[in-house]
Amino acid sequence: MNRRIIYLSLLGAVVALAVGSYFLAPAIRQHMHDIASSAASQSEQEKPDTPWVYGRESARFTIVEYADLECPYCKDYFPRLKAWIDTHPDANLQWHHLPLPMHEPMASYEARWAECAGIEGGNNAFWRAVGLIYSSTRSNGSGPANAPQLDELGDRQAAIDECASNHASVLQKVRAQTYQASLDGITATPTLIVKDKATGRSIKLQGAPDGDVLLSAIDWLSNPAQGSGSK
Protein backbone atom coordinates (compact mmCIF):
# COMPACT_ATOMS: atom_id res chain seq x y z
CA MET A 1 0.00 0.00 0.00
CA ASN A 2 2.80 2.37 0.91
CA ARG A 3 4.56 1.55 -2.34
CA ARG A 4 1.42 2.38 -4.28
CA ILE A 5 1.10 5.72 -2.52
CA ILE A 6 4.75 6.52 -3.23
CA TYR A 7 4.30 5.49 -6.88
CA LEU A 8 1.20 7.66 -7.29
CA SER A 9 2.97 10.58 -5.62
CA LEU A 10 5.92 10.27 -7.99
CA LEU A 11 3.60 9.98 -10.97
CA GLY A 12 1.77 13.11 -9.87
CA ALA A 13 5.03 14.99 -9.52
CA VAL A 14 6.12 13.97 -13.02
CA VAL A 15 2.78 15.03 -14.50
CA ALA A 16 2.92 18.35 -12.64
CA LEU A 17 6.46 18.95 -13.88
CA ALA A 18 5.45 18.18 -17.47
CA VAL A 19 2.41 20.45 -17.30
CA GLY A 20 4.46 23.20 -15.68
CA SER A 21 7.14 22.92 -18.34
CA TYR A 22 4.50 23.11 -21.07
CA PHE A 23 3.17 26.40 -19.73
CA LEU A 24 6.57 27.81 -18.81
CA ALA A 25 8.27 26.98 -22.12
CA PRO A 26 6.89 30.01 -24.02
CA ALA A 27 7.96 32.31 -21.19
CA ILE A 28 11.44 30.77 -21.15
CA ARG A 29 11.73 31.04 -24.92
CA GLN A 30 10.62 34.67 -24.74
CA HIS A 31 13.16 35.37 -22.01
CA MET A 32 15.95 33.83 -24.07
CA HIS A 33 14.78 35.82 -27.09
CA ASP A 34 14.90 39.02 -25.02
CA ILE A 35 18.43 38.21 -23.86
CA ALA A 36 19.54 37.52 -27.44
CA SER A 37 17.92 40.72 -28.69
CA SER A 38 19.57 42.71 -25.92
CA ALA A 39 22.95 41.18 -26.73
CA ALA A 40 22.49 41.92 -30.43
CA SER A 41 21.55 45.52 -29.65
CA GLN A 42 24.56 45.89 -27.38
CA SER A 43 26.77 44.37 -30.06
CA GLU A 44 25.49 46.92 -32.57
CA GLN A 45 26.25 49.76 -30.16
CA GLU A 46 29.74 48.41 -29.56
CA LYS A 47 30.39 48.22 -33.33
CA PRO A 48 29.19 51.50 -34.88
CA ASP A 49 31.73 51.19 -37.72
CA THR A 50 29.38 49.46 -40.17
CA PRO A 51 28.93 51.67 -43.26
CA TRP A 52 25.45 53.04 -43.91
CA VAL A 53 24.21 52.04 -47.36
CA TYR A 54 21.09 53.29 -49.13
CA GLY A 55 19.79 51.09 -51.94
CA ARG A 56 20.41 47.47 -52.88
CA GLU A 57 23.33 45.89 -51.04
CA SER A 58 24.00 43.71 -54.08
CA ALA A 59 24.24 46.66 -56.51
CA ARG A 60 27.31 46.55 -58.73
CA PHE A 61 28.18 50.22 -58.26
CA THR A 62 28.61 52.06 -54.97
CA ILE A 63 28.61 55.84 -54.78
CA VAL A 64 30.44 56.99 -51.66
CA GLU A 65 29.34 60.49 -50.74
CA TYR A 66 31.72 62.54 -48.61
CA ALA A 67 29.38 65.03 -47.00
CA ASP A 68 28.97 67.59 -44.24
CA LEU A 69 25.54 67.88 -42.62
CA GLU A 70 25.99 71.67 -42.34
CA CYS A 71 27.08 72.08 -45.97
CA PRO A 72 24.37 73.98 -47.93
CA TYR A 73 25.46 72.38 -51.21
CA CYS A 74 25.19 68.91 -49.66
CA LYS A 75 21.77 69.85 -48.29
CA ASP A 76 20.57 70.72 -51.79
CA TYR A 77 22.20 67.70 -53.43
CA PHE A 78 21.25 64.94 -50.99
CA PRO A 79 17.56 64.51 -51.98
CA ARG A 80 18.46 64.61 -55.69
CA LEU A 81 21.17 61.97 -55.32
CA LYS A 82 18.89 59.80 -53.19
CA ALA A 83 16.12 60.05 -55.80
CA TRP A 84 18.60 59.06 -58.51
CA ILE A 85 19.58 55.96 -56.53
CA ASP A 86 15.88 55.06 -56.26
CA THR A 87 15.63 54.86 -60.05
CA HIS A 88 18.96 53.08 -60.65
CA PRO A 89 18.97 49.73 -58.81
CA ASP A 90 22.44 48.89 -60.15
CA ALA A 91 23.90 51.56 -57.83
CA ASN A 92 23.74 52.22 -54.10
CA LEU A 93 24.82 55.10 -51.89
CA GLN A 94 27.30 54.86 -49.02
CA TRP A 95 27.74 57.69 -46.54
CA HIS A 96 31.12 59.09 -45.49
CA HIS A 97 31.26 61.81 -42.83
CA LEU A 98 33.35 64.87 -43.62
CA PRO A 99 32.42 67.70 -41.22
CA LEU A 100 34.30 70.79 -42.37
CA PRO A 101 36.22 72.96 -39.86
CA MET A 102 34.23 76.11 -40.66
CA HIS A 103 30.99 74.32 -39.68
CA GLU A 104 32.16 73.02 -36.32
CA PRO A 105 31.16 72.06 -33.71
CA MET A 106 27.64 71.61 -35.09
CA ALA A 107 28.66 69.53 -38.12
CA SER A 108 30.36 66.85 -36.02
CA TYR A 109 27.54 66.79 -33.48
CA GLU A 110 24.98 66.23 -36.24
CA ALA A 111 27.15 63.49 -37.73
CA ARG A 112 27.21 61.75 -34.36
CA TRP A 113 23.46 62.28 -33.91
CA ALA A 114 22.73 60.58 -37.24
CA GLU A 115 25.06 57.72 -36.28
CA CYS A 116 23.29 57.28 -32.95
CA ALA A 117 19.88 57.31 -34.63
CA GLY A 118 21.17 54.49 -36.80
CA ILE A 119 22.39 52.57 -33.77
CA GLU A 120 18.98 52.88 -32.16
CA GLY A 121 16.80 52.33 -35.22
CA GLY A 122 18.93 50.66 -37.87
CA ASN A 123 19.93 51.59 -41.41
CA ASN A 124 16.62 53.22 -42.37
CA ALA A 125 16.69 55.39 -39.26
CA PHE A 126 20.17 56.64 -40.16
CA TRP A 127 19.06 57.80 -43.61
CA ARG A 128 15.89 59.37 -42.20
CA ALA A 129 18.06 61.19 -39.66
CA VAL A 130 20.29 62.58 -42.43
CA GLY A 131 17.23 63.78 -44.35
CA LEU A 132 15.73 65.29 -41.20
CA ILE A 133 18.90 67.19 -40.35
CA TYR A 134 19.23 68.56 -43.87
CA SER A 135 15.57 69.62 -43.95
CA SER A 136 15.79 71.44 -40.62
CA THR A 137 19.30 72.91 -40.46
CA ARG A 138 20.03 76.54 -41.28
CA SER A 139 23.42 75.33 -42.59
CA ASN A 140 26.91 76.83 -42.41
CA GLY A 141 27.34 75.76 -38.79
CA SER A 142 24.11 77.29 -37.48
CA GLY A 143 22.29 73.98 -37.07
CA PRO A 144 18.52 73.57 -36.74
CA ALA A 145 16.39 76.05 -34.81
CA ASN A 146 15.11 73.15 -32.70
CA ALA A 147 16.64 69.80 -31.76
CA PRO A 148 15.87 67.15 -34.41
CA GLN A 149 13.22 64.58 -33.53
CA LEU A 150 12.58 61.25 -35.26
CA ASP A 151 8.92 60.48 -34.57
CA GLU A 152 9.34 56.72 -34.93
CA LEU A 153 12.10 56.77 -32.29
CA GLY A 154 10.43 59.20 -29.93
CA ASP A 155 10.85 56.90 -26.94
CA ARG A 156 14.59 56.64 -27.70
CA GLN A 157 15.18 60.36 -28.20
CA ALA A 158 17.00 60.83 -24.89
CA ALA A 159 19.22 57.83 -25.66
CA ILE A 160 20.10 59.26 -29.09
CA ASP A 161 20.96 62.66 -27.61
CA GLU A 162 23.08 61.04 -24.89
CA CYS A 163 24.84 58.85 -27.43
CA ALA A 164 25.61 61.83 -29.69
CA SER A 165 27.21 63.65 -26.78
CA ASN A 166 29.08 60.83 -25.06
CA HIS A 167 29.42 57.65 -27.16
CA ALA A 168 33.20 57.29 -27.56
CA SER A 169 33.03 54.83 -30.47
CA VAL A 170 30.71 57.10 -32.44
CA LEU A 171 33.01 60.06 -31.83
CA GLN A 172 35.94 57.96 -33.02
CA LYS A 173 34.08 56.85 -36.15
CA VAL A 174 33.35 60.42 -37.25
CA ARG A 175 36.93 61.46 -36.54
CA ALA A 176 38.33 58.43 -38.37
CA GLN A 177 36.23 59.11 -41.47
CA THR A 178 37.28 62.76 -41.45
CA TYR A 179 40.92 61.74 -41.23
CA GLN A 180 40.49 59.13 -43.97
CA ALA A 181 39.03 61.80 -46.25
CA SER A 182 42.18 63.88 -45.80
CA LEU A 183 44.29 60.84 -46.71
CA ASP A 184 42.13 60.42 -49.82
CA GLY A 185 42.82 64.04 -50.76
CA ILE A 186 39.20 65.07 -50.25
CA THR A 187 38.72 68.42 -48.54
CA ALA A 188 35.46 69.73 -50.03
CA THR A 189 31.85 68.60 -49.89
CA PRO A 190 30.04 67.10 -51.59
CA THR A 191 32.57 64.78 -53.24
CA LEU A 192 31.70 61.39 -54.69
CA ILE A 193 33.76 58.27 -55.27
CA VAL A 194 31.99 55.93 -57.69
CA LYS A 195 33.19 52.33 -57.33
CA ASP A 196 32.66 49.34 -59.62
CA LYS A 197 32.66 46.13 -57.57
CA ALA A 198 33.04 44.01 -60.70
CA THR A 199 36.23 45.63 -62.02
CA GLY A 200 37.63 47.21 -58.86
CA ARG A 201 37.89 50.56 -60.64
CA SER A 202 36.79 53.88 -59.17
CA ILE A 203 36.44 57.51 -60.18
CA LYS A 204 36.25 60.72 -58.14
CA LEU A 205 33.58 63.31 -58.92
CA GLN A 206 33.73 66.67 -57.18
CA GLY A 207 30.76 68.91 -56.56
CA ALA A 208 27.19 67.80 -57.23
CA PRO A 209 27.18 65.83 -60.51
CA ASP A 210 23.81 65.31 -62.14
CA GLY A 211 22.39 62.02 -63.34
CA ASP A 212 23.99 62.22 -66.78
CA VAL A 213 27.45 62.64 -65.26
CA LEU A 214 26.85 59.70 -62.92
CA LEU A 215 25.81 57.51 -65.85
CA SER A 216 28.89 58.59 -67.80
CA ALA A 217 31.07 57.66 -64.82
CA ILE A 218 29.43 54.25 -64.62
CA ASP A 219 29.93 53.71 -68.35
CA TRP A 220 33.61 54.62 -67.99
CA LEU A 221 34.05 52.22 -65.08
CA SER A 222 32.27 49.42 -66.94
CA ASN A 223 34.49 49.68 -70.02
CA PRO A 224 38.10 48.60 -69.33
CA ALA A 225 39.06 49.80 -72.82
CA GLN A 226 38.64 53.37 -71.60
CA GLY A 227 41.49 53.09 -69.12
CA SER A 228 42.48 51.22 -66.00
CA GLY A 229 42.75 51.83 -62.29
CA SER A 230 41.35 54.84 -60.47
CA LYS A 231 40.81 58.31 -61.81
Automatic annotation (TrEMBL):
Thioredoxin domain mapped to chain residues: 33-223
GO molecular function term, any single one: isomerase activity
Keyword tags: Isomerase, Membrane, Transmembrane, Transmembrane helix
Gene3D superfamilies, alphabetized: Glutaredoxin
InterPro entries referenced in this protein's UniProt entry, alphabetically: Thioredoxin-like_fold, Thioredoxin-like_sf, Thioredoxin_domain
Keyword Transmembrane helix included in the entry's annotation: yes
Listed transmembrane segments: 6-25
PROSITE patterns for this protein: THIOREDOXIN_2
Protein family (similarity comment): Belongs to the thioredoxin family. DsbA subfamily.
Protein name, as recorded: Protein-disulfide isomerase
Organism field: Pseudomonas asturiensis
